[in-house]
Design goal:
The protein is mainly α. It is 68% helix and 0% strand.
Length: 291
């Protein structure tokens, strides 16, 4: 499967954080320092620390809607999407957090697979704040699932402009262009994403698929660890099948099945699809020429 980045984009800030800053002010709201400390803990993947600070603030009587946003962000990272959705909804009533609340709800709904609701919520988010780039990015993904390439391209353009070309947006737009068979443009986006975020596994996976779709199977699977190799062979085999290179697709998928130490359902299903396509289109089908 081609991989999409759909979670909140969090910038890592390498500074130490302590829970004391998350105490409420005299008015029962979070201090700016408290918000920053919780945000930093989430960004650094110190999720236990973030959860502890949020709990302490709640026990301290904080009713600040920013705390609900932070709770939503934390649960989104933890993949507790229903809990995140509830937290984001609690921040919708305050004008200062409404746009972020709508954006977070849209992201959570998308990750829950509630696409129709997600689309409408994300539209509300960008209407409330036209600079909400995460909402624009997620809108692009929603339009991709509908095959509405004009709308998705426009959404990604907004996300790019308002994020300064964030790697998450470059990855999603690269994925979109792969779906449209705009391979060279997809490769350019995915390479740019990796230049900005070299450890972005989603962009690296998608780039390997793009290489395979161009017939460069060796580069698509090279440099993989033993744990990754089966998945990369599966992806390359799937890409070979998409481009009509059925013999190579079967070879790569069989390799994936051999490398995996246990039954590999995805590769097995892809192999069935490739064989069916080969039978349907004729054994001598010619793949698209590699660029």
């Amino acid at each position: 499967m081609i991989t999409r980045w759909a979670s909140l984009a969090l910038t890592v800030v390498l500074l130490a954080a302590g829970p004391s800053a998350a105490k409420p002010s005299a008015e029962g709201t979070l201090t700016a320092a408290g918000v920053a400390e919780i945000r930093r803990a989430i960004d650094e993947q110190r999720l236990l620390d973030a959860g502890r600070m949020i709990d302490q603030a709640m026990l301290g009587g904080v009713t600040d809607p920013r705390l609900s946003l932070l709770g939503g962000d934390l649960n989104l990272v933890r993949k507790r999407y229903n809990v995140a959705l509830t937290s984001y909804r609690m921040a919708e009533g305050a004008a200062e957090t409404r746009a972020q609340s709508l954006q977070g709800q849209g992201l959570a709904l998308a990750l829950l697979g509630r696409s129709t609701e997600a689309l409408e919520m994300l539209k509300r988010a960008v209407a409330e704040d036209p600079k909400a780039w995460r909402a624009w990015n997620a809108l692009g993904a929603q339009y991709d699932t509908r095959g509405d390439w004009t709308a998705s391209e426009a959404a990604y353009a907004q996300a790019m402009a308002n994020s300064g070309g964030a790697p998450q947006v470059l990855n999603n737009r690269g994925y979109s262009r792969l779906l449209q068979s705009r391979r060279d443009e997809a490769v350019a986006d995915l390479v740019a994403a990796l230049q900005k975020k070299p450890d972005m596994s989603e962009a690296r996976t998608n780039l390997r698929v793009a290489l395979a779709m161009g017939g460069d199977y060796e580069r698509a699977v090279s440099g993989a660890s033993a744990d990754e190799r089966a998945a990369l062979l599966n992806n390359a085999g799937f890409a070979a099948g998409v481009r009509g290179d059925y013999a190579k697709a079967e070879e790569l998928l069989n390799q994936a099945l051999k490398v995996k130490s246990e039954y590999y359902a995805r590769a097995s299903e892809n192999l069935k699809i490739v064989r069916a396509l080969a039978a349907q289109n004729g054994a001598n089908a010619t793949p698209h020429a590699a660029p």
